[in-house]
């Protein structure tokens, strides 16, 4: 009886020690995450603008705006604060379509400007004998209709369409290693352009949310191990609690040596995690 009492006491002390380590590790991770979020907030207070690598106009007169494909990002725990402290408009967009801000996963905004000079007008005569002036191509339609008397300065009708294209591609990260092709270091770029020759892309902003994985994981397990020394299988059933880098497991296994089912408790620390 004393032996069993000592075993239970030892097991209780071991479990308490493991839980204390888990709690300390969890607190350390939370503290580090808060520090990272503060850094992010300071960096994101003004905007999520991405500086262009290159802007140019191709042989067809289409302007191109090229930026790195990587995005500003934060954990989902910080998304509400980030959106409130910036002028992204993502929170307003979320409200407009009836969703909660915390459901936002990705947000992008493309700024454009449109400009044209010396557009040649055509003239038609309407039913009131007024000279109505028009300009039209496949992207824009402008119409000016004079007023019916001296108090009426006339009206403009305006209609425009646009076709923005976002092309993501990769290219060698270093020119000296370009001969390696897809097997060498790469960087991913976005090329943003408009089919409308009057439109120029002037800016690109982006923000994405990376979900924070849960530190807590509880598993029910059926497990079989094989003992090469005795040449026997060791089946077991139990539960495993994973918290961050630590695992605590309790299971019952069949002991070939004692010819009976026995309990076992184990604790582990994952010092290596390759994904």
Task: Explain the layout of strands and helices.
Layout: H1 2-44, E1 54-57, E2 63-68, E3 73-75, H2 79-85, H3 90-96, E4 106-114, E5 122-125, E6 131-136, E7 140-145, E8 155-160, E9 164-172, E10 186-194, E11 199-210, E12 216-227, E13 232-243, E14 246-255, E15 260-269
Parallel strand pairs: 3-11
Antiparallel strand pairs: 1-2, 2-10, 4-11, 5-6, 6-7, 7-8, 9-10, 12-13, 13-14, 14-15
What this model shows, in words?
The protein has 275 residues and is α+β, with helices and mostly antiparallel strands. The protein has two domains: 2-34 and 213-269, no CATH class; 48-211, no CATH class. It is built from three helices and 15 strands. The chain has helices at residues 2-44, 79-85, 90-96; strands at residues 54-57, 63-68, 73-75, 106-114, 122-125, 131-136, 140-145, 155-160, 164-172, 186-194, 199-210, 216-227, 232-243, 246-255, 260-269. The chain has a four-stranded antiparallel sheet, with no helix packed on it. A four-stranded antiparallel sheet has the order 5-6-7-8, with no helix packed on it. A hairpin with a 5-residue loop joins strand 5 (122-125) and strand 6. The protein is elongated.
Provide a count of the helices: 3
How many structural units, i.e. domains? 2
Helical coverage, percent range: 10-25%
User: What is the SS-derived class?
Assistant: alpha+beta
* Poorly predicted segments: 43-47
Nearest-angstrom radius of gyration?
A: 33 Å
How far is it from the N-terminal to the C-terminal residue, by CA? 47 Å
What percent of residues are in strands? Answer: 35-45%
- The SSE order reads HEEEHHEEEEEEEEEEEE
Task: Give the strand order, joined by hyphens, for the main sheet.
Answer: 1-2-10-9
Q: How many E-type strands?
A: 15
How would you characterize the largest beta sheet?
4 strands, antiparallel
**What is the approximate shape?**
elongated
In round numbers, the mean pLDDT is 76
Q: For this entry, what is the oligomeric state of its chains? A: single chain
